Amino acid sequence: MQRIVLAGLIAMGGCASTASMQSAAGYAVVECAALPDGRVSGCTVVEESEPGQGYGRMAIEAVARGRVVPKDPGSKVGTFRTTVRLGPDG
Questions:
Q1: What percent of the chain has pLDDT over 70?
Q2: Got the DSSP string for the chain?
Q3: Most buried among 6, 19, 28, 72, by the most CB within 10 A?
Q4: pLDDT per residue as tens digits for the range 38-70
Q5: What's the rounded Cα separation, in Å, for the pair 49 and 80?
Q6: How far is the CA of 42 from the CAs of 31, 32, 60, 70, 81, in angstroms?
Q7: pTM of this structure
């Protein structure tokens, strides 16, 4: 199994789009493709804690800002899944 690191992700504090999300924590599992240059593409929501509250959309936006760094330089990554936790405490 290929180990990857998502570089450049930061806490999502202050990104909540509704009042209910500002006081509640949630998560989303997203699946993405890792491009050879480390960019992330084609993310989809696999699971989210509160469907319809925007956690999936925000998780995709967060992951898309990052980079995928293979454990072994020169190796191909392909697709990956990651869980992004969102809320007041990230």
A1: 62
A2: ---EEEET----TT--SSHHHHH--EEEEEEEEEPTTS-EEEEEEEEESSTTSSHHHHHHHHHHHSEEEESSTT---EEEEEEEEESTT-
A3: 28
A4: 889 999 999 999 888 889 999 999 898 888 877
A5: 19
A6: 8, 5, 9, 18, 12
A7: 0.67
How many CB atoms are closer than 10 A to CB 49? 16
**Are the CB atoms for 90 and 12 separated by under 8 Å?**
yes
CA 39, CA 60: separation in Å to the nearest integer? 13
User: How confident is the model at residue 24, as a pLDDT?
Assistant: 64
CA–CA separation, 31 vs 46, rounded Å?
7
Answer yes or no: is pLDDT of 13 > 50: no
Q: Which residue is listed with tokens 């509250």? A: 53
- Cα(59)–Cα(56) distance, integer angstroms: 5
**Alpha-carbon Rg of the chain, whole angstroms?**
14
